[in-house]
Amino acid sequence: MTGRPATREEKYTAWALWTLAFVALWLTESAVGYTRDESVYFAAAESYSGWFRQLFHSPARALTDAAIVRAWDYNHEHPALMKTLFGLSHLLFHDTLGWMRSATAFRLPAFAMAALVPALSFLLGSALYGRTAGLFAALAFMLVPRQYFNSELACFDLAVAALWLLVVYCFWRALEDTRWGIACGVAFGLALAAKHNALFLPFVLTPFALWRAWSASEGEPETRSWLLRFVGVFASVAVLYGLLVLSLGGGEGFQRKFFLLSPHSLLFVSLAAGGAWTLKGLEKVNARVTRALVPIAAMAVLGPVIFYLHWPYLWHQPVDRTAWYLAFHAKHNHYAWFYLGTLLREPPFPLAYVLVKTALTVPTSLFVPMVTGFAALAARVLMGQFEKTRAWVAPVTMAEALVGVNAMASILVISHPQVPHFGGVKHWFPSMVFLGLLAGQAVSRGCAALVERLRARWPSLPGLAVSVPVFAVLLAPALVYSARVFPYGTAAYSELAGGLPGAATMGMQRQFWSSHVTGVLPWINEHAKPGARLFLHEVHGGSFRDYQHNGMLRPDLRAVGSPFDADIVAYQYHQEFREFEFNTWQAFGTRTPTMGLYLDETPQVVVYVRPESR
Question: Domain Glycosyltransferase RgtA/B/C/D-like spans what residues (predicted)?
Answer without folding.
Answer: 79-213
